[in-house]
Amino acid sequence: MSLLTKLNEDLKTAMKARDKDRLTVIRMLKTGVTNEQIKLGHDLSDQEELAVLSRELKQRKESLEDFTKAGRTDLVDHTKQEIQIVSEYMPQQMTEAEVQALVEATITKVGAKSTKDFGKVMGALMPQVKGKADGGVVNAIVKKALTAL
Questions:
Q1: What ranges do the domains of the chain cover?
Q2: By CB atoms within 10 Å of each CB, which of 21, 41, 129, 139 scores lowest?
Q3: pLDDT tens digits for the chain (149 residues)?
Q4: CATH topology of domain 96-147
């Protein structure tokens, strides 16, 4: 089932349940997917749908940081709820141990010898973890692993 189909079904469910918060987030996600389809001129692949979801999740996480710094607890709670709803549509997130194992395998595969090979490792690794792991976490693990070489 495509993401757009799932969003449409969940939209109907949220309308029937009169869940305004969920309804608003689903509408935003649906709009993001539809806009991307229009922009690209074709139905989205799974990777393209994942990119839209990742972008939406990232925006909300950045907003959460800003609201927290500003002391806006009312907006912090609302944004946390939005993040939870968007996360429901994301694939299962990888654990740090899984990322660590993938980083080590990628370092071996590309033949990285020092921190100068950071770009090579990240270039090979990011397509494998896209949407499944936070880029900042992956970045930190790669730096740590390359420094240890």
A1: 3-87, 96-147
A2: 41
A3: 688 899 999 999 999 999 999 999 999 999 999 999 999 999 888 888 888 998 999 899 999 999 999 999 889 999 999 999 999 998 888 888 898 999 999 988 988 888 888 999 899 998 888 878 888 888 989 998 888 87
A4: Arc Repressor Mutant, subunit A (1.10.10)
Dihedral over Cα of 76, 82, 85, 90: its sign: negative
Superfamily of domain 3-87: Uncharacterised protein YqeY/AIM41, N-terminal domain (1.10.1510.10)
Task: Give the C-alpha distances (Å, rounded to integers) separating 148 from 51, 100, 102, 107.
Answer: 32, 13, 16, 12
